[in-house]
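Render this sequence as a predicted structure.
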Amino acid sequence: MKSLKKYLVYPCILLMASACTDLEENLKGDITTDISIPGLPGGGGGASDVLGAAFAGLRTGTANHGSYYSVQEITSDEMCIAAKGGDWFDGGILIELHRHTYTPGHTFIKDTWNNTYGAINTCNELLAGTSLDENQKAQTRALRAYFYMRLLDLYGNVKIITAPGADAPQSNRAAVFAFVESELLAALGVSEITSASNFSGSALGTAQNAYRINIYGALGLISKLYLNSEVYTGTARYDKAAIAASHVIDSGVYRLCGDGCKVPNLGKRPAVASDPSELEGYAAVFAPNNANNPEHIFSVFYDEVTGPDMNFSQMNLHYSSQFTYNFQNQPWNGYATLEEFYNSYEDGDVRKKNNFL
């Protein structure tokens, strides 16, 4: 159910002797007109949405190289970026992340910090204005709380800034946890989460748009916060995590995408008979055309026109995959999984079948 944190990964272990790691984009132009995406309330994060700039902050680092995604994954036992000759060595900074020998001056660590605070500042500027209605204010506070949850998880002690241009002393991890909790509770319109909680007073509402935060999205976030409470504060709150999650599950608004939950397979190769024409169940949850999937509660909006930079395929696939999948640009042959992690899946596991090549 935590679609935001489940990333579709296509690690590749084939190596080539030469490549290019110049990842600078060649920008062709700018969009200057408002664009709405049919079927998505408020343009789904497009330029016509007053909250578009705030939610666009989620895209920075979430699915591209050099920021939040990188520091979350390369430091884990799931992924690495192996040097291939002189390629992908990059002065050793990628190896430092994987071996946990990085310092506070590491460029990815600094960029993640700056990008996250930049997103928080955008939220602060919106909240300081007068143009937001109550629903938009509640969403912006919940979104800002999520960005602080990233900082809480990655850095621990950080400054809690709630106004544009302001400064504050550094807060300890427990204080940041308390701030995130209080902001999410305020957005939900309750003082605490109990099995009897009534969220009818919340301005978030229950409108289903996975690219915005409704009551269930905020409940999912606070459930995740409570799930890690013992690490953040020293006090376990697993019971509260379960209660918050139960409010989502018992609502019946969302369901697991299982048998019969299908989308066309946009990556089907005509010459490969074993490629299905449709993706079903788990594979459909993470398909490129997964809009309106019944599992999605809160996810990051990506779109070729108004929400670009979803480049998992570039980061993870082999150079030759450009021809396999008819990509416009050549993938980078970078991110790969570790053998031990790959082998931790049983052969019949659908995640092993769908997440790896």
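Summary. The radius of gyration is 21 Å. The longest strand covers residues 79-81.
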